[in-house]
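Lab notes, practical 5.
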Amino acid sequence: MDAEADSTQNPTPRHKCSACYKQFKKKEHLIEHMKTSNHSVHQPACGVCQKHCKSFESLREHLTGPLPKGVCSKTFSQRGCQLCLVLFDSPGSLIAHRETCCLSAPTRLGTKELTYIDSQFHRQDSSDENHAGRGPGGTVAIDCEMVGGGSDGSLELCARVCLVDEDENLIFHTYVKPQLPVTNYRYDITGLTEEHLRNAMPLGEVKENVCKILYNGENLGKIRLNGGKARLLVGHDLAHDLYCLNMHYPDHMLRDTAKYRPLMKTNLVSHSLKYLTRTYLGYDIQSGTHDPYEDCVSVMRLYKRIRAQKHPEEEDHGTSTPSNRIVGVPDCWRSKELDNLTPDQLYAMSRSDYKCWCLDLRPKLPT
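Output from the prediction step:
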């Protein structure tokens, strides 16, 4: 009986993750969790309890879901923004913030005849090598509209291309001459007809103009290395748009709202741009036919909102960690060395498995 009493009064200590607060019976289980969780200061975190979440969707569930955490939910309902999920010091600060956080939908271009807009944008050189074209005006958003080819209309053919800069200026817009006969104009979605594409720009010329804007006078070797003066390319499902344009752009220069980990569903499936815009910007798009300018502006706003997050610099917080470790690579975690570390020290070693967009505004280290 005495042994049972001691067991009740002094339960086996549990090992708690400093980021997501999961608890484990054995230290080795916590260490294994830290190897695969990729916790970091860049993960979405609750402004009340500071719990880390893998995505904004899971953070939203924590704050406002069917089974929200009591204290966090109550505090957030009084001082939290439903769009950006930021917690403010007072209800008054929240009211002032909402005026700028909830945006209105951009004006649609429609399907009127617009030709290539030679805006001088592609001839502007960035003078700040450290930012590699990531300063004001150094990022371009793209959206393509597709029509159908092939016997069943399922073959994707690029029919319209739009590019905007960070200030939402239209810098390139054109209809694209299909390389194959169009069997489905998908009018309900694209609003396009045969008339729009009759005298359209050939795909090769479209690709040349897009590359001229993106490369910004930089050679391909420098772009592949560290970007140089080339532009970051923002979009939603960029792989699809680039494929239909028959062009390639280095992965480290892409910012895809469909593939960015915090913007995805908890099961790592992409949300639609329509959902992301309504949830994080506060307005609806694609209510009728899809408008490429409207989509470009929306994806640029999403990127800038995520990029503007203020995350602290990652550091080891003065912890004594193995000198030969390589953070972020599970095979390099030494179990015997890690057994002696506290949960806070383990967290200090952990790193994201994605590049946070807030880093785009930080100067690059000299090479």
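Observations recorded by the TA: Residues 292-307 form the longest helix (16 residues). The chain has two domains: 15-101, 116-120+136-308.
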